[in-house]
Automatic annotation (TrEMBL):
Alphabetical GO biological process terms: DNA-templated transcription
UniProt keyword Hydrolase, yes or no: no
Family indicated by similarity: Belongs to the LysR transcriptional regulatory family.
CDD domains given in the database record: PBP2_CrgA_like
UniProt GO MF annotations: DNA-binding transcription factor activity; sequence-specific DNA binding
Protein name: LysR family transcriptional regulator
């Protein structure tokens, strides 16, 4: 199949009336320009230019071909301009994934602020409690908490996420509070899972560690549902303080086993390792970096 890729070069030579000047502006050897024009003439089956030492003139075929060549040249220029604008201006769409509770309590206000700063960038937020493969999905960024399995991704650490073991005051009025993690077997447990994996309750103190993995009495993949169960006096839960802080401060929930250290996994912003990030992605990364203190304030219990 004939490609006629020399057409924009032909238009440039005619525009400048010189092979040498076209070569200079395009940063090509003059011999390359001459060879490309000869290839184009061979593809078209006739000469396009009459060339002398002093001047260039169009042949009859050249006069017929020139308008189409100029149209292609102009189209290429427009495409280059559009591509540069897309790469350098804050515009386009970002697809962001995060756990459901993360979206509601943290990201919604942040993304509203980001959108007000960059109205040309459209945002699609997916509340996904399942684990996604970013390299195979159309997700640009994902917020995740805990151990990372995909080392091909760039992981920007944001803050530790403090967990607390809690129960409602009303529940503890009717049930004796556990004094050791082993006592949890005596209480209904409100548990959470990710893709079917039930998250363990981990505790440590001095040289002792304990992981509570009993069957759940109430199981959900939504942390907010577990908060509701806990406030309804249905048992004991092990949840991020970002969800329980206000209830702990109001006295509706009580911290259990306060002398035992709980889980403090790291929250990350994840994105694929790409050589050339578009401007919209660079702006989002910088925006999140500047708000690490916001994540720390929300996800740790000071």
């Amino acid at each position: 199949m004939k490609e006629f890729d020399g057409l924009p070069l032909f238009a440039k030579v005619v525009e400048l009336k010189s092979f040498a000047e076209a070569a200079r502006q395009l940063q090509l050897p003059t011999t390359t320009v001459s060879r490309k024009i000869q290839q184009l003439e061979a593809e078209l089956g006739g000469k396009l230019l009459n060339r002398t030492t002093r001047a260039l003139s169009l042949t009859e075929l050249g006069e017929q071909v020139l308008p189409k060549a100029m149209l292609i040249q102009d189209t290429i220029k427009e495409l280059q301009t559009d591509a540069e604008a897309f790469a350098n201006q804050p515009m386009g769409k970002l697809h962001i994934s995060a756990p459901r509770s993360f979206c509601q309590h943290l990201l919604a206000p942040l993304l509203a602020e980001f959108r007000s700063l960059y109205p040309g960038i459209k945002l699609e937020l997916e509340a996904a409690n399942r684990i996604q493969d970013l390299t195979k999905s159309r997700v640009d960024f994902a917020f995740r908490i805990g151990e990372l399995k995909d080392s091909s991704l760039i992981a920007l650490p944001l803050t530790a996420v403090d967990y607390e073991l809690t129960a409602s005051k009303a529940y503890l009025d009717q049930n004796q509070a556990p004094k050791h993690p082993v006592d949890l077997i005596k209480h209904p447990s409100i548990r959470n899972h990710v893709d079917g994996y039930i998250l363990p309750w981990q505790f440590s103190q001095a040289n002792e560690s304990y992981s509570h993995q009993a069957d759940a009495d109430l199981l959900s993949d939504d942390l907010d549902v577990s908060v509701t169960y806990t406030l309804a006096n249905l048992g004991i839960s092990y949840l991020p303080v970002s969800l329980t802080k206000r209830y702990l401060e109001s006295g509706e929930l009580i911290t259990l086993l306060p002398n035992w250290d709980k889980l403090s996994p790291i929250a990350y912003l994840l994105y694929p390792n790409r050589k050339h990030l578009p401007q919209k992605a660079k702006l989002f990364i910088e925006f999140i970096k500047q708000r690490k203190s916001f994540f720390k304030d929300k996800l740790t219990y000071n």
